[in-house]
Amino acid sequence: MRKILVFLALITLLGASPALADDTIKIGEIATMTGDFAAFGDAEVQSIKLAVREINAKGGVLGKKLEVIMYDCRTRNEDMVNAARRLVRQDKVTAVIGPSGSGLCIAAAPVFNDAKVPHIGTLPTNPNVTKDEKGKVRPYNFRICFIDPYQGVILSIFATRDLKAKKAAVLYDLSSDYSQGLREYFISNFTSRGGKIVADEGHRGDDVDFRAQLTNIKQAKPDVLVLPTMGKCLPLAIKQARDMGITIPIIGGDGFGDYMWEVAGKDAMRNTFWASHLDKADPALQKFFADYRKISGTECKEFMNAVMAYDSVYWLKDAIERAKSTDPVKVRKALEDTKNLKLMHCTLTMDAFHDPKGKEGVLVEAKDGNFVFYKKIKP
């Protein structure tokens, strides 16, 4: 497994003296730097680097510099679990941030809870990230994003109220916890609002040909096509749907990203709408995007991952300061007690299941090579 160490104080990649190491607070990061979600992982790495640099430049936390130890989980559950084990057992970190995948975070959840080290997911929206199979809260698992039931409500409201859809078709990834969860919550909310599901087609995450499923969907004559997926299958399905003459609106969750434009193309992406955690044009985010550009040398494309990762560092900073300790158990309690914390993209309060309370959802429209603000929806 590739290990990348980011030292942002007077530490070099050649090592640090024991005395200097005592003056740092180790936090872990797990990112999807390779695999289908590599673009998401790179955005999170750059954003955490930026946040830590800012914090250290202002004196650090509790008088100590933050030191980030990052592992690439390669978008694989087994590597996620191994990275989590190394961070809590070998590296002795205070807390871990990332990645964004629900399945990855669920796979490693027992590791964090057994070790009693808090974990903050950046964009894992499946409810089971912070709840176990019995519906009880996982004490050491947190997230900064809203969850799939929330997205399901947002998409069903948009489909029935704005698009006036009475019939919907769904094409989802059978191998993805994220996709299955979002599908379930969209269907339950859409049907409760009087809609009918006329096609419900599944595929595997590594599939590249969806024409058989799309043929069934086309024959069902839906008013809207729902793609609760992420990764390369998402733009491929859109392109194939348009090539087959499916011109109806396509909607989906927060798995969208700038990576889709190159694969699907501008024409295919027209008339598609996506649930987002924030509006990229929000004035409060513009300084961050400018700073991201300076530190990375690139535009911030996967902006949701970037913003969530950045704000996760500041949330953790606040928790450590309120705990007045780097003890993971005490930091966990402070994270749980978070209330009305002003972050860059929101004011954060934790609910009983370690999910953000009362966050607004945003719908964006794909238009001319960009995802532009369409409207806010708060269920």
Counted by DSSP, the helix tally is 13
- Mean pLDDT, nearest integer? 92
Uncertain spans:
1-21
CATH-defined architecture of the largest domain: 3-Layer(aba) Sandwich
Helix content: 40-55%
Q: What is the CA-based Rg, rounded?
A: 21 Å
By DSSP, the count of extended strands is: 15
Instruction: Provide the CATH top-level class of the largest domain.
Output: Alpha Beta
The coarse overall form would be globular
Main sheet: strands, sense, barrel: 7 strands, mixed
Distance between the termini: 42 Å
Structural class category: alpha/beta
How many distinct domains?
2
- Sequence of strands across the biggest β-sheet: 8-7-9-10-11-14-15
| Share of residues in strands | 15-25%
Query: Any idea of the CATH topology of the largest domain?
Result: Rossmann fold
Can you walk me through this structure?
The chain is an alpha/beta fold. It folds into two domains: 3-146 and 282-348, Response regulator (Rossmann fold, 3-Layer(aba) Sandwich); 148-276 and 361-377, Response regulator (Rossmann fold, 3-Layer(aba) Sandwich). It has helices spanning 18-21, 38-57, 77-90, 102-115, 148-162, 177-192, 211-220, 233-243, 259-264, 266-269, 286-296, 303-323, 328-336; strands at residues 3-7, 24-31, 65-72, 96-97, 119-121, 141-143, 167-173, 196-203, 224-226, 250-252, 272-276, 341-342, 347-348, 361-367, 370-377. The strands form three sheets. A seven-stranded mixed beta sheet has the order 8-7-9-10-11-14-15, sandwiched between helices. Strands 1-3-2-4-5-6 form a six-stranded mixed beta sheet, with helices on both faces. Helix 8 (233-243) links the parallel strand 9 and strand 10. The protein is globular.
